């Protein structure tokens, strides 16, 4: 049953490989981002060794890990789904015996694995040589990080699918897609770690799905949080992956009922 | 056994009606006006397994909408539908295993990857066992002459090459029912012929039921014994192709080139005892329409030859295309 989705994942991986040149520019952009945020944070730290209980080295590590994780969880499924809805390809996919959305999810995973292997891993090695970052040597921490990162990928992908599906109802949802991207970068803690948000914002963000995308996995690796805290973080992530499934399902069912095939 | 069984099949679309001008655009923001369009209107259709049926109609007649309902993509607004024993929309995932679909204007292959990769994906999607897959793919490769194409990325194929691959992709899992939506659009004569021959072959060999929509009536002539004609969402003709031309063909047409110019009324006078209508179509050239109870060509000639010397004769039967055009223009009095 899973075999066909794994095949979809493999195909996406191959397709990325066919277009690998596109990713050379991505490497440069990610390196620049890491550099920019690194120097920005170092300027903020100045002479202080610690702000809000986060040391400068932890901060540098956080920046590097957060951006390299982004390469894994980020995908363009929102744009892709919206595009396929607009030009009617989604209909063509419905004549094949698989779930369209699950298929898309696995393709996103194929894309993520591609970037993780050909981009994040080598990028991380280079970054760790250039910047003074400290990665844990404890394997269990890496294990928790991997689980958390995967859950973060699921949450982000679910949000992407949700935004993409809105194209069924608002034919041009590019604005929404762009807004969503900025919101996720900001509220997930990629740009500013959640600990730096004001108290009231933190209290709200705890209940939102966004921090599960970037802040949670990156903190596990960069700050070495306690096991009980890790478990409670993972629980929140897990709850969100289940909760987000509900609106997706509803949206998809309603969309299939009112599907209008654009362009004949 | 019936492959397709539809009763009272109907599809309505709700369409947003835009108001005019700036003021209208603002009003649209708050109060949308919808208009319901009935694309398919209570169609009854029964197709036996093993049949090849042509489904024709003008643009916007509702052909594609019907196909999309029959393939489970669209949910019918009303009516009963059973295809291969399934409810296509509700039981989509099991249902689509039993059908193959080709949309002439949309590719189902992975654009950036070699054709073989798309086939491999289909093998996994349908869970085709290795042996069966290889045997069938080899056969398709041979018949559709795809050998050199398999390793090429789809985007580098010509339209004709791609179409052959699309057909193979639709048939890889050996469906008992094949839907073809404009399969020969934009193809050259040779490729068209190839594809037709292939379709006939699989119909005879595997008993595959084929439902085909097309604008190219020569496809229908070459393949189908039965046509279903659709106009404004309703079926206006359902029957044999030969009956269609017998009913609507309007008899043969005779083209005559005479030695000298004649007056139309004089010519009409020669044949006043039979129902033939003369038309002037060029210098000394005339067309005689033989209507009514089909008077024979020789009867016309026997009445003309004593008076005027005939230089050249040509007889034309109405083509399917003429018939269809006539039906669309004049409508069907009662089929």
UniProtKB/TrEMBL annotation, chain A:
<feature type="transmembrane region" description="Helical">
    <location>
        <begin position="21"/>
        <end position="44"/>
    </location>
</feature>
<keyword id="KW-0472">Membrane</keyword>
<feature type="transmembrane region" description="Helical">
    <location>
        <begin position="182"/>
        <end position="201"/>
    </location>
</feature>
<protein>
    <submittedName>
        <fullName>ABC-2 type transport system permease protein</fullName>
    </submittedName>
</protein>
<dbReference type="InterPro" id="IPR010390">
    <property type="entry name" value="ABC-2_transporter-like"/>
</dbReference>
<feature type="transmembrane region" description="Helical">
    <location>
        <begin position="230"/>
        <end position="252"/>
    </location>
</feature>
<keyword id="KW-0812">Transmembrane</keyword>
<feature type="transmembrane region" description="Helical">
    <location>
        <begin position="145"/>
        <end position="170"/>
    </location>
</feature>
<dbReference type="Pfam" id="PF06182">
    <property type="entry name" value="ABC2_membrane_6"/>
</dbReference>
<feature type="transmembrane region" description="Helical">
    <location>
        <begin position="56"/>
        <end position="73"/>
    </location>
</feature>
<keyword id="KW-1133">Transmembrane helix</keyword>
<feature type="transmembrane region" description="Helical">
    <location>
        <begin position="113"/>
        <end position="133"/>
    </location>
</feature>
From TrEMBL, chain B:
<dbReference type="InterPro" id="IPR050763">
    <property type="entry name" value="ABC_transporter_ATP-binding"/>
</dbReference>
<dbReference type="GO" id="GO:0005524">
    <property type="term" value="F:ATP binding"/>
</dbReference>
<keyword id="KW-0813">Transport</keyword>
<dbReference type="InterPro" id="IPR003593">
    <property type="entry name" value="AAA+_ATPase"/>
</dbReference>
<feature type="domain" description="ABC transporter">
    <location>
        <begin position="24"/>
        <end position="257"/>
    </location>
</feature>
<protein>
    <submittedName>
        <fullName>ABC-2 type transport system ATP-binding protein</fullName>
    </submittedName>
</protein>
<keyword id="KW-0547">Nucleotide-binding</keyword>
<keyword id="KW-0067">ATP-binding</keyword>
<dbReference type="InterPro" id="IPR003439">
    <property type="entry name" value="ABC_transporter-like_ATP-bd"/>
</dbReference>
<dbReference type="GO" id="GO:0016887">
    <property type="term" value="F:ATP hydrolysis activity"/>
</dbReference>
<dbReference type="Pfam" id="PF00005">
    <property type="entry name" value="ABC_tran"/>
</dbReference>
<dbReference type="InterPro" id="IPR027417">
    <property type="entry name" value="P-loop_NTPase"/>
</dbReference>
